[in-house]
Design a protein that fits this description.
This is Threonine synthase. With about 475 residues, this protein is of the alpha/beta class. About 45% of the residues lie in helices and about 15% in strands. The structure holds pyridoxal-5'-phosphate.
Length: about 475
């Protein structure tokens, strides 16, 4: 399997070659030259597989430059009941016949990003050891991504994590989750600013190409291709859990921000998994919903702060991968479209043949508001005695609107309610239960450095600690 750039300017690379990188060398996103497809027999054989076996079947097609035995070891070490709470890894819960939750948040940080990030941690360690190399991961977080990255990379040889977060702006739970890590390879930096300041520092450091090369600066953001492929696996898992044979179809509703999760669903469908619809659910930041309804992609200058904060995104970084497929995988067309977006503009595909492909790819969409979220949390709690978090509520709200008779609707549960307890309390007048072992999280000793919003200070810190 070779990987190309959506913008056509990168020589073909292997999985291992793109694993540690971020953007492609020409500023585009990395994408396989062709999606692997599964024959009817191969798909039939996968039906009886457990999560680890499924993961191997999916990933070996994308990571074919890693020896099969090594890949298997990495997968078996990653997807364990010990880390994910059960051998199902991503259990399916039925709310009522035809409506289901796919539980993706049973990893260490209680959000779906663990599913991919835990694999990434082990892949990084493996590749770095082979190349006798080291990596300093620099990131900015407002919550979920940073903690998932830290819990995936803690204690890993050859990897250090420098994670910037806005001082005092994360929830006490999120703060404690990150800052209580005592591993010597994890560095929490509380910047005296807002999230955008943190992101600007990361950009400034990454744009210093000499510094970046000399100090082996890397990233683990949501455009990382390995993260997307790891997420393909649970679409297979859910499909087989809910069907009896491969003639049946299933739809998925996906709470979306950076479009990584639903992009994985698109890839599963392209590989031949019988997915009926992929429903993109957004919150008030509804750039993606607008596109799927109208064909107009119009990133907003401002991002609204909502009660499903991990979806507060106005420029979905993985969307470029999907549009590349929409425009017939033509890098020239793609490049033109993104030129318009990157100069602050928008594009309109509504009058092009490409927009019709949205339907062929099974995509539909909807959005949700704070009020919708509260109502959905209440409704699911009252009707099904199940507490769902605010992001999952966005997915359930939009998923129910797109239900079709005879086709199971699977709503992806992207976080546990304990992570967003404030809104749970607002909706239900009671608190979300904490998973065992996390009751006293906020009381644990915390380890972090406070720094001004100054890239030079952050650089100095990285040099001193690597
Ligand atoms: C990251 C995140 C999302 C959005 O996923 P994307 O892959 O960015 O679309 C949704 N819900 C939760 C809880 C998240 O952490």
């Amino acid at each position: 399997m070779k990987y190309l750039s959506t913008r056509g300017g990168m020589p073909p690379k292997t999985f291992t070659e793109i694993l540690l990188g971020g953007l492609a060398t020409d500023g585009g996103l990395t994408i396989p030259e062709v999606y692997p497809t599964l024959s009817t027999d191969e798909l039939a054989a996968m039906r009886s597989m457990n999560y680890r076996e499924l993961a191997f079947e999916v990933l070996r097609r994308f990571a074919d430059d890693i020896p099969a035995a090594d890949l298997k070891t990495i997968i078996d070490k990653t997807y364990t009941a010990e880390v994910f709470g059960s051998d199902d890894i991503t259990p399916v819960k039925t709310l009522e016949p035809g409506v289901h939750l796919l539980g993706l948040s049973y990893g260490p940080t209680l959000a779906f990003k663990d599913v991919a990030m835990q694999l990434l941690g082990n892949l990084f360690e493996y590749v770095l050891a082979k190349e006798n190399a080291e990596l300093n991961i620099l990131g900015a977080t407002s919550g979920d991504t940073g903690s998932a990255a830290e819990y995936a990379m803690r204690g890993k040889k050859g990897v250090r994590v420098f994670m910037l977060s806005p001082k005092g702006k994360m929830s006490p739970f999120q703060t404690a989750q990150m800052f209580s890590l005592q591993d010597p390879n994890i560095f929490n930096i509380a910047a005296e600013g807002v999230f955008d300041d943190c992101q600007d520092i990361v950009k400034a450091v990454s744009n210093d190409l000499d510094f970046k090369a000399k100090h082996k600066i890397g990233a683990v953001n949501s455009i990382n291709w390995a993260r997307v492929t790891a997420q393909v696996v649970y679409y297979f898992k859910a499909y087989f859990a809910l069907t009896e044979n491969n003639d049946e179809k299933v739809s998925f509703s996906v709470p979306s921000g950076n479009f990584g999760n639903v992009c994985a669903g698109h890839i599963a469908r392209q590989m031949g998994l019988p997915i009926h619809k992929l429903i993109v659910a957004t919150n008030e930041n509804d750039v993606l919903d607008e596109f799927f309804r109208t064909g107009v992609y119009r990133p907003r200058p401002q991002t609204e702060h909502t009660s499903s904060p991990s979806m507060d995104i106005s420029k979905a970084s993985n969307f470029e991968r999907f549009v590349y497929d929409l425009v017939g995988r033509d890098p020239k067309i793609l490049k033109d479209l993104w030129q318009q977006v990157e100069t602050g503009g928008s594009f309109d595909l509504s009058k092009t043949p490409y927009f019709a492909k949205v339907k062929d790819f099974g995509f539909e969409s909807g959005s949700s508001s704070h009020q919708n979220r509260l109502e959905t949390i209440r409704k699911v709690y009252q009707q099904y005695q199940t507490m769902i978090d605010t992001h999952t509520a966005d997915g359930v709200k939009v998923g129910l609107e797109h239900r079709e008779a005879g086709i199971p609707m699977v709503c992806l549960e992207t976080a546990l309610p304990a992570k967003f307890d404030e809104t749970i309390f607002e909706a239900l007048g009671r608190h979300a239960e904490r998973p065992a072992g996390l009751e006293n999280l906020e009381k644990l000793p915390q380890r972090f450095e406070v720094m001004p919003v100054d890239a030079a200070v952050v650089k100095q810190f990285i040099v001193a600690h690597s």
